Amino acid sequence: MKTYEYIFAAIIMVAILLAAVFLTGISPPLYRSTSEVEQLKMAAQKIMAQIILSPGEPEDWGENITVRASDLSSLGLAVSTVFTREAFVLDPDKVQRLSQSLPGDISIQPNTVRSLLNLGFDYDIKMEFIPALKIEIRQIDLSGVEVSVVSEQGMPAVNANVTVGAVFTGGGVLLKRAYGFTDENGKCTLSLNFFSPALLIAAVDYYGVQGVTVKAVGTVTNAYFIGRFLLSSSYISSDEAYQIFLTKLPNGSISIGSVHYELTYSNKKIDNYYVYEMNGIEPYTVAVVTASDSGFIAAWKKIPESFGSSAKEMPLAYMLERSVKIGLSSYTVRLWVWRVSW
Amino acid sequence: MVHVSIQHIIGTVALIGLAISLALAYQIVVGYVEENAIKTQLNQIAEYVSMSITNTISLTDFTYGVLSTSEAVSKRLNLPLDLSGKPCNITIVERGGRYYVHVSVVGRKDLYAESPITASSTQRMQMFTGGDLPEGLLEDSNIEPRVWVYGGSPNIVVWCLKAGDIIYVGLGLLTGG
Fold it and tell me: Angle CA(A138)–CA(A139)–CA(A141) in degrees, nearest 5?
């Protein structure tokens, strides 16, 4: 055997090794990417189960504004009840406290949620609260409003049962109501006399799927309504507040009612907002209104459109959806989960 | 002639040496790839167990949350007998007040995966990571609570039970079935 033949044999051996290494390295990445999707799916399911089925601890953390983010030991958005449990029913106050428009002290930050869910630096999440019915309410003139109802998929909701309430001041706080059904374009025009400033509430029942929207007309003082508390940017001289609540009637329609409660100043301020407490709360209260020297003050539950990471690109994110009820309204909760580090 | 034989011997020995080192190099590469594959499987097992724990807690809280005591709720885990011929252990570990499912290959402390448990141990919930459980807990059930379980066992369960307003959660083995 000549020297070059030995060298040739050596080159062939090295080539065989390189080919073997190459072939060995082909299949694991394929398996890994499939497994990574599977892991994200399981992570998304456990996070979703925790968020929408657990009330968190303390259980009343949504309505109790004295409970701050640092006081939470467990996070969950499910409604907290004493005698019964309802699946996929979220507490409007807990969801509202995820809103970043709330005063900073009572708003829950995405980092806190990640930490409470024990996600550390491994995962990141983003949540979206998508109403099952997109309801728009528009004042067409001094004596009428138009309500437009579109399904989540963008189709007009035909023959939906619409109830509109207008709350305004006129020798006290007044509530006027109007009822109707949407036409083939998902629109409903109703005759309703009210004075500005006012708060318009539209409640819609579309074959069992309900939705509520609230809109302020005219100059309304900025305020927030959480549990039994009213947080107002201006001082309220009145000692009573009107709660606007919803009741579902046997025929499927939704009735809008109002009841007044005592309002007391708690001598506390949160981020420059005066904190007032009411001596009771009606079930399914959507808004609180009061007339004060400083003007018409209205507050309603604000459900954030999205919550979590502001990242626009989510590489290899897993998305999971669940239908839930927040108050009387139906929503789809969409959860995105992705890994930050592997 | 002698000169040619020595040249052949050197060449042949060099080739044999090269073949052996290439085989070893290939073995190292295969070992690395296999470890990665096992790590991926460990991650998947950890995620599965942690998801099962969260689901079992949710189910127990949802079903028995308003009562002061409950029946034991359990979920049998469907796990592979081994990972490329290597057995694994599963346990719940506590770190800084948070809980993780820890899955490791037996005899290889460096080869492990962890998955966070979203529910944290609170006044209402206690995760079983060792120590004593209240007397009589799980007495009427066919579940034997375990700090760690061997992945190859077909009877691994995640159990959950409410007693005295506290929900106890842990790993265990189904006995007698």
Answer: 145
Q: Residue A184 falls within a domain, yes or no? A: yes
Write down the domain spans for chain B: 28-174
In this complex, do A28 and B36 lie within 8 Å of one another by their Cβ atoms?
A: yes
Q: What's the CATH code of the domain at A144?
A: 2.60.40.1940
Q: Which of B7, B30, B32, B58 to mutate to test the interface with A (most CBs of A within 10 A)?
A: B58
Indicate the number of domains in chain A. Answer: 1
Expressed as residue numbers, the domain containing A246 is: 132-300
With 0-12 CB in 10 A as exposed, 13-18 as middle and 19+ as buried, what is B105? buried
Mean pLDDT across the stretch A143-147?
Answer: 90
Are A53 and B66 in contact (CB < 8 Å)? Answer: no
Residues of chain B contacting A31 with CB distance shorter than 8 Å: 37, 40
For residue range B71-107, list pLDDT tens digits in order. Answer: 888 999 989 888 888 889 999 999 888 899 999 998 8
Return the bridge partners of A260, or none: A242
| Residue A283 included in any domain | yes
A265 within domain boundaries? yes
Query: What average pLDDT score do residues B119-148 get?
Result: 82
Residues of chain B contacting residue A1, judged by C-beta atoms under 8 Å apart = 8, 11
Distance (Å, whole) CA B91 – CA B150: 9
- Is the minimum CB–CB distance between B50 and chain A shorter than 8 Å? yes
